[in-house]
Amino acid sequence: MSSRLNDHLTEGQLETLRDKVMAEIERIENKLATEKTHMEMANSGRDEVDSANDDIIKHAELRFTTRETLYLKKLKKTLPIFDTDEYGVCEDCGAEISFQRLMARPTSTMCIGCKEESERDELQSFHGRRSKSLGQQVNLTARV
Ligand SMILES: [Zn+2]
After folding, report:
1. How many domains does the chain have?
2. DSSP assignment, residue 96?
3. E-strand spans in 11-135?
4. Which residues lie near ion ligand 1 (Cβ < 5 Å)?
5. Cβ atoms of residues 39 and 61 within 8 Å
6. Ligand 1 center from residue 25 Cα (angstroms)
7. Which residues share a beta bridge with 89?
8. How far, in Å, from the CA of 86 to the mean position of ligand 1?
């Protein structure tokens, strides 16, 4: 008999999910490294590019990189949770998060009920916080 907090998941399922998180980290790190090389190459060939067009491309790249960087941070935060018995347990209400949900989104730390509630809250304050959080994201990317 297992007395793990997350004993609705088998050892095998946990192993599968941990592998998935590690594979995602590797995939994104490779992608970001490639992006960085592309941006450096684009910068070195700057003179030939129309500068307005260049700005649009850079903004699109920045948005993409920011999103991926945030996801990467989330994945890296998720990894150590596998060493506890709390992976797959809702951090809000302690409910079990199903294997299917975790496979679809291995960084889930909340059950569907709590997630929907927190997304509603986020949506409500989204407009007020928008410009501020965008500024923070840009700073975050610049530091990486
Ligand atoms: Zn919950």
Report:
1. 1
2. B
3. none
4. 90, 92-93, 95, 111, 114
5. yes
6. 26
7. 96
8. 13
pLDDT at 107: 96
Q: How far apart are CA 4 and CA 67, in angstroms?
A: 33
* Dist. CA 127 → ligand 1 center (Å): 26
Q: Is 5 a member of any domain?
A: no
Which CATH number belongs to the domain containing residue 139 in this structure?
A: 1.20.120.910
Cα 66 to middle of ligand 1, angstroms: 28
Task: State the residue range of the domain holding 53.
Answer: 11-143
Is 53 domain-assigned? yes
* Reported pTM: 0.71
Q: Chunked in runs of 10, what are the mean pLDDT values of the chain (144 residues)?
A: 85 98 97 86 66 75 84 96 96 96 96 94 72 48 47
